[in-house]
Amino acid sequence: MNPNVTLTLATEKDAELIHLMKYEAFLPLYEIYQDDETSPAKESIDKVIWQLTHPNSHYHLILADGETVGAVRVRHTTDPDAPQKEEHISPIFILPKYQNKGIAQIAMHMLFELYSDTDVWTLATIKQEARDCHFYEKLGFIRTGSEKEINDQMTIIGYEKKSMSNTRISLRALQKEDYPFIDLCMQELHTLHVNARPDLYAPLEHPYSEQDFLNIVEDKNHLTVAAVNETNTIMGFGIATLKEKSGMITDFKTAYIDDIFVRPEYRRMGLAKRIFEEVECKAKEQGAKRIDLMVWGFNEPALELYQSLGMKPQRYIFEKTL
Predict the structure, then answer these.
(1) Using 50, 70 and 90 to split pLDDT, how confident is the model at 159?
(2) Which of 42, 144, 259, 281 has its CA 20 to 30 A from that of 158?
(3) CATH number of the domain encompassing residue 26
(4) In this structure, are 196 and 295 located in the same domain?
(5) Is pLDDT at 162 greater than 90 in this prediction?
């Protein structure tokens, strides 16, 4: 289960705590790159106090289940005539023993909501730290092309993320060329199930084979929806199967939702709702009388989503380990 993450605005009295946490969090990187001039681990407490009291920045403590586990600083645009509102993140850090728990990702999404009127987010990170680069890219940041060599081992690169409030989102059917992206999404979705129920789910490299996906795209009994932005980047998708009920059950056509997935960086924007409603519309056009789906009890966000969309429990499946 995800930790309960909250952000609390820091004040000058938190300077010593932030200074100590920053040292602990960034020391492993400093030991690798020896970047005396740029490492947060080498910053004085006076600089932390200056950051906390600067009128154009805010420091937020990151708490997980009530424990202070890190912090993040947001520096605001200072030019009132600037064409867009820009926020710069520097730094964000989580104490080592709390890392790899999804806390930083949740904190970043909370920042995006807290400063929802921001047009552009910017930050910089170490080019050689592939894991950190992947983390920011997963959140929707793209490289700006700016690079600054700190020493022979270390280069700082810039990232930016534009607000989605002005992004034009369109819906289309999935295409065979979408397979590489859908494959990555399905791997993430399957891993969620493997981690929650390792007794039932085995790790798979490709939950959908390329041929499986091609069959879905070409089959008239499959309904597919992709939410894309102006560059045709897929932000989320849905796949449903039309099924004819007969025999002991009253004859009718059902649209069974196999998967709805939204990339983490695009969540909390109403995309899942739009995808669901598009599947619903297509299902009605094909003569379906109802929509069915199955969701695991551990997937609480999905349960809340489907209930908010008017779905109701149809039956219960119980289990008992022997």
Answers:
(1) very high
(2) 42
(3) 3.40.630.30
(4) yes
(5) no
Name the more confident of 50 and 268: 50
Chain-centroid distance of CA 110 in Å reads 11
User: Does 64 share its domain with 141?
Assistant: yes
Q: What is the pLDDT of residue 249?
A: 66
Among 73-87, 147-161, 193-207, 278-292, where is mean pLDDT lowest? 73-87
Report the alpha-carbon distance of residue 174 to residue 133 in Å, rounded.
28
Residues 155 and 257 in one domain: no
- Structural domain for 210, as ranges: 170-308
* Domains: count for the chain: 2
Interatomic CA distance for residues 26 and 266, integer angstroms? 29
Global pTM value: 0.59
